[in-house]
Specification:
InterPro entries: Polyketide_cyclase/dehydratase, START-like_dom_sf. The model has no long low-confidence stretch (mean pLDDT 93). By secondary structure, this protein is α+β, with helices and mostly antiparallel strands. The chain is 30% helix and 39% strand. It is globular, with a radius of gyration of 15 Å.
């Protein structure tokens, strides 16, 4: 069974404007995410914009598309993975001298049957894959933190 919510956060010693510039540039997603190899928006960043993505796990590659569902500059960015219906989001909030960034994967309504089948047949099962996703989310946030805090 798919976890309804995977979530992690990091505190970044940088203003929300700098962090937002990094996460809202989908072309840079491969710089953050260990699974994403390529991501392109098919239009300006706004609700309804679609993206085309290429993901990788070891030697396996697969394409996905997403639809941006929410854009609140310097506060929240969320997109739905069209294949499985999950919503991925980044939320930014003030934290001390900087910004807390929370990355979430929402699957409160489960995932599509084809996604379940694929994860079980090709990715080692839901529990294993979700462990990898959480590890990847932590790596993504660490990479965003490093970029935001650099000079």
């Amino acid at each position: 069974m798919v976890a309804p919510l995977l979530q992690t956060h990091v505190d970044i010693d940088a203003p929300a404007s700098k962090v937002w510039a990094l996460i809202s540039d989908f072309r840079r997603m491969p710089d953050w995410s260990p699974q994403c190899r390529w991501m392109r928006a098919l239009g300006p960043l706004r609700a309804g914009t679609r993206t085309f993505n290429l993901n990788r796990r070891n030697r396996m590659f697969w394409p996905t598309t997403c639809t941006v569902v929410e854009v609140i500059p310097e506060k929240r960015l969320a997109f739905r993975v069209n294949t499985n219906g999950t919503i991925w989001s980044y939320e930014l909030e003030p934290s001390g001298r900087g910004t807390r960034v929370t990355e979430s994967r929402h699957a409160e309504n489960g995932v599509s049957a084809i996604s379940n089948l694929s994860v079980n047949a090709l990715l080692g099962g839901t529990e294993n894959f979700e462990r990898e996703l959480l590890k990847g989310m932590n790596a993504s946030l660490a990479n965003i933190k490093a970029a935001a805090e650099r000079g």
